[in-house]
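## retry 2 of 3
previous attempt timed out at serialization; input unchanged, resubmitting
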Amino acid sequence: MDRENLLQRLVKADRAPRPAGDGRFFYAVDRFSVFHGTVHLAGWAFVRGAAVASVEIEFASGRKHVLSSYGRPSPDVAAAIGAGAENVRFDEVIAVAEPLQDIPLARLIVSVAGEPPRIVSDFGMPGPEDHGVQIQDDYDNWLRSRPSGHLLEIGARARSGVSRKELVPSGWSYTGLDIVPGPNVDVVGDAHRLSTLFPAASFDAVSLFSVIEHLLMPWKVVIELNRVLKAGATGLVITHQCWPMHDRPADHWRFSDTAWPALFNRHTGFEIVRAALGSPAFVVPLRCNPFTNFGGPPESFLASSVLFRKTGETTLDWPVDAEEIGVAAYPRT
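## retry succeeded, writing output
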């Protein structure tokens, strides 16, 4: 791999305010995990042409912790950045007493003698190198490439105050569907019955954010989607490969990146544009034994995403209603 490609993989430009045209500060946070009263923080920080005096993590409470491990060997970073970055890594476990909800608000403070500190926030958020982020960017770029259209969001209710309607480009119309009324819901109805709620070929795009895992029969929803989408319509699904159980008993499914062809294929009238896993994660058992001693690097992912396109009609059907199966199908509150 050439140096430029390695640089793109290893380096993320600072997103915090800094002097215009600086371009000297680079960093990466490889791990920011919280478990049983500890934070495990690992990564690197480098300021070209200057020696880093200290790296601190500052919590929302105002408490600061100096990373005493800063200065570990970093030949991989030096190979990408160049001379001066041979010892810029840190890897530290920190005991914390802060409330869990405050820990993601922490900031990194990188100090250099005679210069303003570089301050990094939101370093726990997935960056542009995350494949799930890239797929959503591809979808957003596709929407912006069209002057107009009609977008359907399934599971649109702003249950936690989050609405994605404002992300729809100007010129597009938006319809939010949910099983119960609430903020951001235009139509109340069952996603398994889309063709009874909307005319055929009504939509140019569809999005499902963290909802398909709650749909009892996702294959039926895909068939229904084919009926209400126009030819060439594009869709985005973002869901979980690994996530704690939630909204029980209506938490039904988890998806790998290789599961999507079972739903989106020529028989259902779709093709997959791109599918990927994102947000690497550890799975930690309550009791470790030879069968659950996973250890090692992350082998799981929190997110699974797919970008798909309608290529034709389908003759498939699944004439089964969720109510017939006799299990809770949706979070109603």
